[in-house]
From TrEMBL:
Transmembrane segments: none annotated. PROSITE patterns: ABC_TRANSPORTER_1 (PS00211), ABC_TRANSPORTER_2 (PS50893). Signal peptide: none annotated. Keywords: ATP-binding, Nucleotide-binding, Transport. Pfam families: ABC_tran. The lineage of its organism: Bacteria, Bacillati, Actinomycetota, Actinomycetes, Micrococcales. The keyword Ribonucleoprotein does not apply. One of its GO terms (molecular function) is ATP hydrolysis activity. Residues 15-248 form the ABC transporter domain. This is NitT/TauT family transport system ATP-binding protein. CDD domains: ABC_NrtD_SsuB_transporters.
Amino acid sequence: MRVQSQPPSGPAVAVEVKNVTRIFAAKSGEVTALSDVSLDVAAGEFVSLIGPSGCGKSTLLRLIADLDQPTSGTIDVFGKPAKAAREAQDYGIAFQQAGLLPWRSVQANIELPLELHGQGKGARAARAKELLALVGLSDFAGHMPGQLSGGMQQRVAIARSLAESPSLLLMDEPFGALDEMTRERLQTELLRIRAETNAAVVFVTHSIPEAVYLSDRVVVMSPRPGRVERIIDVALGSAKDRAEDLREETQFFERVAAVRDALHIAHGDAPASGGAKGVDIR
Ligand SMILES: Nc1ncnc2c1ncn2[C@@H]1O[C@H](COP(=O)(O)OP(=O)(O)OP(=O)(O)O)[C@@H](O)[C@H]1O
């Protein structure tokens, strides 16, 4: 199976967000979604963004993906401006809705980015085969998306985001619409995929346990206008050393409590005094 790792000579920083502010024009006046946000994500690092609803998590991810532009500040991806990184296909994207084309088979969906970028039929099919194996769907290449469960569709979307071996994955609540069991299974699968690909990941979630289980660092954002309130170093080992039983360990609960307290402080509550709006503290 082909795996991708950051070349030793490549930049050590995957994403560099510097003093980014994003102000939207709305009917009721201006909305400051992000205010002076700075954040670095190292090559190969998994960073989650968590914070109350409307604090600008998706906005920040969209800015990194160059789907939107900051009002002020700069964003570099692997040392290039976000626009150049998008043009160079340096990252893959997966969102909450799998976003598969219903009239194309699973394999054809995975091949789509390769097809759009002119890769030949044989090479595309070989890559799709590797990716189907990576996400555990080898037997479903010929199925149509509508014949798959939500969790399977999400795995297809992840396979598609990995098609061009990106060194960076941008994921906006990719498991948000799934039941708890499927969600936990896919989290473990994502850890495995990441251990194999060594891609950096920026991951938006509302779930504290999900953020802790997956991440090297958890970025806690303040209510709108979103700022980086605190960064929690999870320090629970590398992706390949994490497994289901981690969820039962004392250290895991300690990190969950640390993120929860940081969210309460960001929200202006006393620590551990009730939930921050829009964040799942289960
Ligand atoms: N295109 C837009 N035009 C106007 N306002 C916008 C636009 N996009 C986002 N906003 C506003 O910016 C703020 C941040 O939105 P964003 O979707 O980034 O938050 P979020 O933290 O991802 O929220 P949630 O957790 O609910 O998904 C919100 O107040 C939202 O209404």
